[in-house]
Amino acid sequence: MSLHGTRRRRQAGFRWAVVGVIGLFFALPIVAMVEFTTRAPGGGRTLDTWATLFNFSVIDADYPELQHGVLASAGLTLLTVTIMLVMLVPTMTWVRLRLPGVRRLVEFICLLPLTIPAIVLVVGLAPVYAWVAYFLGESSLWLALAYVILVLPYAYRALDAGLGAIDVKTLAESARSLGAGWPTVMWRIILPNVRTAVLSAAFLSVALVLGEFTIASLFSRDNLQVAINLLGKRDSSLAIAAALAFMILAFVVLLAMSFVGSSRRSSRSEES
To answer: What are the CB-based long-range contacts (under 8 Å, 24+) for 67-70?
Structure first.
């Protein structure tokens, strides 16, 4: 019994050591960012940079690129997540129900962007975006078409795990036998059972879109990271403060989304 208790204490100590090292790894850059943004020119500490960041009239007048980048990234996030879910969830469900033989092919296509560098994607997408700009305009929102390709591998894995955890065929056939149409099957049968997987795919998509820089920069489009990069050439302290503020905001948004998913799961378990 004492040997078992000693082993448990060692395992607990090892876990806490790993968590501590990882926490220190992430905490040190954040502490350095806070120190840099609160450093006064003549020595000491000041919150002038943070006051400027949250003074929206000053940002609107003196730093319009930051405002445009925030709005562009917000629109890109919503559009990318929407396109990804509308495209992947019905396709993956239909493949499991009617075309199981092409499942490996679909998986290969969805995972292929992992092997292609972003710069190569830009070269391949440049002719496509020339036509997109010609017909639809040069809005940064159309970057969502490229971002959907970037998020495919991560979203596919999350959704595939969710669909694999339920008996999709039995659920769909049961609903169809009761007279439900395919839209009803997808909306009221499949989606509620894979809500956790959908939220996981959305988490990954939001994190990737908010942090993407290469494609937007090479296509000369606005997003949050491009705006912070441009701002850094004018005011490095304000750029670091903006990066830290939006990193915290993204963490809060993802945390809130996870709580929404967990609360719904707990409510379903209580009803059952």
So the answer is: 68/222, 68/227, 69/222, 69/223, 69/224, 69/225, 69/226, 69/227, 69/228, 70/224, 70/227, 70/246
